[in-house]
Amino acid sequence: METEEKDCMECGVRIRGRSDKKFCSDLCRNAFNNRQNSDVNSFMKTVNNTLRKNRRIMMTLNPTKKTKVTRNQLLKLGFNFKYFTHTYTTKAGTIYYFCYEQGYLPLENDYLALVVNKDNY
Asked: What span, in angstroms and rounded, lies between the C-alpha atoms of 51 and 68?
């Protein structure tokens, strides 16, 4: 196999080895990749943390797997209505919003029905 001298893409140290070698060590390879992905990882981490928090809040308020709460009860605990994993629309056109298996259905007068998706329970 052909050897070629080039510089490490992370630290700039001269490396020898295979022609497709880009880094002098695993440490440099990991540091380079972590830096390249840090903006995406940070955003994804924030979204996932928000989804998990929403799920925990619904689980806490819904120990019986079906209950009714106010929008303010969720907001006081830090629930963020902008984040959910998916929706489910019934044949009648009713839309449920889910954070994983925990879901809610907006009702009248700022009430919400909390439910659990039985298929994932």
From this structure: 20
pLDDT digits (tens, 9 = 90+) for 1-25: 555 679 999 999 999 888 889 999 9
Q: In the block, which residue shows the tokens 């605990």?
A: 77
Cα–Cα dist 42/38, whole Å:
6
Q: How many angstroms separate the most distant Cα atoms in the chain?
A: 73
Torsion of CA 93, 95, 96, 100, to 10 degrees: 110
Q: How far is CA 90 from the centre of its chain?
A: 26
For residues 27 and 6, what is the distance between their CA atoms, to the nearest angstrom?
Answer: 17
- Neighbour tally for 25: CB within 10 Å: 13
Distances (CA, A) of 118 to 62, 74, 115, 121: 14, 22, 9, 5
Helix segments in the chain, DSSP class H: 26-61, 71-76
Query: For the segment 29-59, what is each residue's pLDDT rounded down to a tens digit?
Result: 999 988 887 777 788 889 999 999 999 999 9
